[in-house]
Amino acid sequence: METSERHKEIVEFCLANSDKSVITKYSKYFKEGYDGYGIDSKIFETQKEKWVIAWEDKMTINDYLNFGDTLVSTGKFEEAAFATHFILSKKDEFTKDTFARVGRWLENGIQNWANTDVLCMLVLSEFIFNEIIQPKDFTDWTQSKSKWKRRAVPVTFVETIKKGYKIEPVLSVIEQLMLDEEEDVQKGLGTLLREIWKKQPDLAESFLLKWKDTCGRKIIQYATEKMDKNNKAKFKKDKK
Asked: How far apart, in Å, are the Cα atoms of 214 and each of 104, 121, 181, 219?
């Protein structure tokens, strides 16, 4: 079966399982708009597993990378989600080149926080866990024109820190993003700093104090969300 035929099969499945109530439900979570077929999550998961199993010996990692290029380029929510799960099925074959290829999906089609975050949690974190890359390899991403690629930096680190990855190398990378004006990036940074605070509060608070007067307020809002009132007060912007 050619890639074009597989893509046709996916589109036909998505159209056949489109649910207007799901579209209505999801639309309120995406300020840029929800571009999706509206497929129930259980139906999606079941079919995803069927394809992963059926194509296991028919698709190489390179096939899935090329297929992923096609899927994310449509801008459709579910097609990008399928691309993420398909490439995840080949995680034992990940290389630095895979990291670069997957990273381009965030510039060439993925266009919402949900697809971005799932890619970070399931796929991009694997590159760090398996020591294929180091946090510093995300540095170039901080300069991307795509806010989703920039957001992917802190969101990937959230997942790695939850599982005990060292914090200091992460902080040196996210410093490049602390003046980012995009709220979606700021929210990712704040979530990461909140996670760091849970692990090493002194380190997180010292970092936040350094940036509190210049960084976006969403960073502070999300980072201090679990702090008590008195602790939060320390991170109010100084009045000039």
From this structure: 30, 29, 11, 11
